[in-house]
Amino acid sequence: MKNVEHIGIAVKNFSEANALYHKLLGVEPYKTEHVASEGVNTSFFKVGGTKIELLEGVNPESAISKFIEKRGEGIHHIAFEVEDILAEMERLKGEGFTLLNEQPKKGADNKLVCFVHPKSANGVLIELTQEIR
Ligand SMILES: CC[C@@H](C(=O)O)C(=O)SCCNC(=O)CCNC(=O)[C@H](O)C(C)(C)COP(=O)(O)OP(=O)(O)OC[C@H]1O[C@@H](n2cnc3c(N)ncnc32)[C@H](O)[C@@H]1OP(=O)(O)O
Ligand SMILES: [Co+2]
Q: In CATH, what number is assigned to the domain containing residue 83?
């Protein structure tokens, strides 16, 4: 694992949350992206060497909508950047973590991603990300 690539924050109102983080961080999001496969709208803010990813669910089945329904708004996941996602998935499986996808899938911001179940990681949803080269 290289660095914390982003922190994902679940929000109810995307435009209000973007305005708030703009005020908080003093920068505009450098990108917004709809990811249909996850049922989310995302926006990304650069902060130091990492990023904040705001996530809004666009349908009730989205992981973000379910999370907000159960637990309210807030930190949803931590994403770590990896050099070789397949190798890292194998390593984590070997260490007893529960992976939520068998194969890397396309995430936002030009990344391949894989999630680790929060129940196998002290209640924290972990995302592995590898840049698509
Ligand atoms: C935009 C793409 C990508 C990127 O490029 O960055 C993203 O970040 S997408 C982000 C959204 N996508 C995902 O989160 C995909 C992975 N998540 C899942 O597969 C599911 O959300 C889940 C983690 C398996 C939970 O789904 P499910 O079991 O259907 O939901 P429940 O509501 O029943 O939850 C079960 C249990 O887990 C707790 N939970 C759920 N989400 C989280 C979380 N983010 N962090 C910590 N705990 C979480 C939930 O509270 C339930 O616990 P109990 O109530 O104790 O049973
Ligand atoms: Co993410």
A: 3.10.180.10
